[in-house]
Write a structure and sequence with these properties.
- The chain has helices at 3-30, 58-64, 81-92, 94-99, 115-123, 141-145, and strands at residues 47-49, 55-57, 67-71, 103-110, 132-138, 160-164, 170-175.
- It has 184 residues and is an alpha/beta fold.
- A five-stranded mixed beta sheet has the order 5-4-3-6-7. The chain has a two-stranded antiparallel sheet with strand order 1-2.
Length: 184
Amino acid sequence: MNFVDTRSRRAATKRFLLMALMLIALKPLLAADALPPAVGDEAPEFSLKSIEGTTIKRSALNQKGPVVLIVLRGYPGYQCPLCSRQVGELLNRAKDFKDANASVVLVYPGPSERLSDRAKEFIGTRAIPDHFSLVLDPDYKFTNDYHLRWDAIGETAFPSAFVIGKDGRVRFALVSKSHGGRAK
């Protein structure tokens, strides 16, 4: 065996090991269950506490009608102005949601410490209609279960919107990979 053969074998081995490591690192991203719910999927169950302490379950809400699920950014060091505007737009359309017999769930994710205080600060003096719920996602459990965690410095969750039909199937899904691009 000469020097060239040994060198090319080492290079091929390095390429093989690099590709194997890349596949291992990408496996969670390639797995079908690592994606957020898509149109046609059954929406995963969730059970979250509202800021008033009431337990909100997707399946219970779906017995009444469709569920509009809005995932906010929570508190990434400040109250997100785009989240505030989006919630304001949704509240302005509260009658439309009520007429459609839809429940609207606003998910506020973040570290459990002071999360309730931050969520109350976020909602401020706005009146929450009875078919709306602002729920807490302490330590990102829901966000992780729905594969919506924006795990970067200064980030919390990808702003997202889902409409879940009465049958529990996702009818609409929009996951924004930026601060904008939200469902109206």
